[in-house]
Specification:
Four copies of one chain form a homotetramer. Chain A is an all-alpha fold. The first copy, chain A, is built from nine helices and no strands. Chain A starts with 16 loop residues before the first helix and ends with a helix. Chains A and B meet through helix 6, helix 7, helix 8 and helix 9 of A and helix 6, helix 7, helix 8 and helix 9 of B. Chain A binds a DNA duplex through helix 2 and helix 3.
Chain lengths: 211, 211, 211, 211
DNA sequence: GCATAAACGAGACGGTACGTCCAGTCTTGTC
DNA sequence: GACAAGACTGGACGTACCGTCTCGTTTATGC
């Protein structure tokens, strides 16, 4: 997950596994209470009952720590079969919005993205720890819709990847924008409007040639 | 724009108008060079040839200053008539993406949004200075499409507002997510795919009843 | 007293005389409440109901202002004839100590003396406004004692000046040191001890040849 | 000397002893060059090659730092046996005057005394670090004079203390006043006059009953 | 069982920026 | 031209964190 000093026959005192969990939990607590910009490494170490040195031994800085602390929140997203493509879309939209209602998630997500605009390594970390892992939801939803006959099969795997990416950007981007920028509620009514729009878009676009 | 010390009987030396422009320009320069997190008030004041106190007399802090400095960049967005709804959408998508390629815009936008998750006043400021002002593009595009007969007229002004908001969130959110989170290029090909999706969504959704 | 823009045919609005008194009184008040180091020009101007510009038009800075504000306190010292040299000494010692009990006098005196160690002009100002004016007390006391026959007449006016200076330094220095440095009370008992010492010193030294 | 974080179970990195010396030396240098009022904590820290926080970790402020920096100058005062009481007095007067010729001593001493008029803790610090330590000179000089038979022995230790305090105030106060307030030279001639006065005062007063 | 060696807590360290305060000057409009 | 008001530059303040360092202490393993 981080930088375990690899090597087989390690000697010396091993790193405390409990410390890791305590630190990540403390980081989430601090995010809730203080938000990104007021969160300090010293405060996290104090909450976790751990020396500051221990933090820096495991994470390079605030950004990396927060990405790890928040990433697993996103893994809780699931996609049960609601019987139709539109219902599945509505479900994922509402689930994601609920996640973004958690202060630690909303503040951390935008902050690390902001930092990542100037930090290549951080961008990769975010992508591998958060973004790419949630594309599974789109892949799963499409597969189900195709199995149901709601969407046509895509032969070309390259084009399929592009479509997945597009859908993911549309859903994730729109929900984030609605929730955090426009600061309007993401409720059932809105989710229905949005998923109707997206549904028609997918069906219509599928009929046309997409390069 | 900021906090003009209201009151009719003005007295004392008036605030320098030149200082305002110098400060905002210096802020944008510093954002380009340093990014959000490394930008400091002291550095901005030095670049602007202005005392730090002058900054604090006019803006409450870094967040407010940056919102104002960046807001006017967004005002440069325009929507010339490209002849069709799809062409108009593609144009605005590419224009917006080009704006997000500017370092000061990309880093500042996400950072202030991140801060705004814990700061009501900042959220309002962002909304009034940036978000609401750009909705004009959606309103204009829809009106043109309706004039061309590409989209039906919406009777209910309430529903019309909701649709405008939805379209705005979809376009802005998706482009931002593609550009900053997925970190993939927003080029003509992608813009064509996305606008096709959106076009079909709009047309299809227009045929159905939207509550 | 300060720097009156001399010249006969002055034009324009004349300086307010009331402002002067208000400023000096405000300065003394501020000294009592805040002490030397916390006293600010802005605060004085506000207390006096006067613009800061007006202060700077009349005094060069904090030091000069405070010297003027405090100097007149010292003019209140008097030396009524108590019938004997020792009684006169005791009286002046106690009077001076009482003056030093006033916060504005004690803090201001030492502070301006401290500043004057690096400022020739300030030293002169202190000397002319405070120190030299109080030597009158020593001169008067000696004259009375000589008239009473308690002290011999000094022929050489040069030597007489030196003796006056010495007595002045001994009395003023010792009282200040007792009151402000040793921070012990200057009461009747101590005044009696000190004046006895000084009396014997004067009588004994008068018998010997003083160069 | 300062605030050693007491407690037996010391932990953490110990404070650098070298830093202490460097800071005090830098403080004296800065006093010489800039004087009290222009001396800044930031400047001292820069001269000492030390972070500003290190200063504040050890001293509460400028006043406390300067007292400590100057106190040890006074410890250099000595009182070799010159053979007679008068010679000893002259020696100590001239030594003290020489010390007061050092810019760091003259400016710092008066400034901290001025500040101490509003700060109980600072007054105590000055007393323990400077004043009381130099009373040793008076005690020593009297003991020698008593051994020589120049002064009578004082039975009552209480009265002896009072006499010591009085002599100390007279010597220190008079020399300071001559040097810093009257701003006249303290040379051999003046020292002879003053010590003659004091000698006769001591001898004469000893013959009388002092309450 | 005892040395080795890394991890650990504590906290001092050199830095950097903060946001505030004050000095002293300048620019208005009013008296 | 003096004045009240208040914005201006400039610089120090004392605080808060950063990320590093240096201690003494603890805890695994491997000889």
């Amino acid at each position: 997950m981080r930088n375990p000093v690899s090597g087989p026959g390690r000697t010396g005192r091993p790193r405390s596994a409990a410390a890791d969990a305590a630190i990540l939990a403390a980081t989430r607590d601090a995010l809730v209470e203080l938000g990104w910009s007021k969160l300090t490494m010293g405060d996290v170490s104090a909450r976790a009952g751990v020396a500051k040195t221990t933090l820096y031994r495991r994470w390079a800085g605030k950004n990396e720590l927060v990405v790890d602390a928040v990433a697993e929140l996103f893994d809780a997203l699931e996609l049960p079969d609601r019987g139709s493509l539109q219902a599945d879309i509505e479900y994922v939209v509402l689930s994601f919005a609920e996640l973004l209602r958690r202060p630690e998630a909303r503040t951390a997500l935008m902050a690390v993205v902001a930092e990542s605009t100037r930090d290549e390594a951080l961008r990769d970390r975010i992508r591998s720890a958060i973004v790419d892992r949630q594309k599974r939801l789109v892949v799963l939803g499409r597969a189900r819709a195709q199995a149901r006959g709601e969407l046509p099969y895509e032969e070309d795997p390259h084009a399929a990847g592009h479509t997945t990416d597009l859908i993911f950007d549309v859903i994730a981007g729109t929900v984030v924008h609605r929730a955090l920028v426009s600061a309007e509620p993401v409720d059932e009514v809105w989710a229905a409007s949005f998923s109707a729009l997206l549904m028609h878009g997918l069906l219509g676009a599928a009929g046309t040639a997409t390069p």
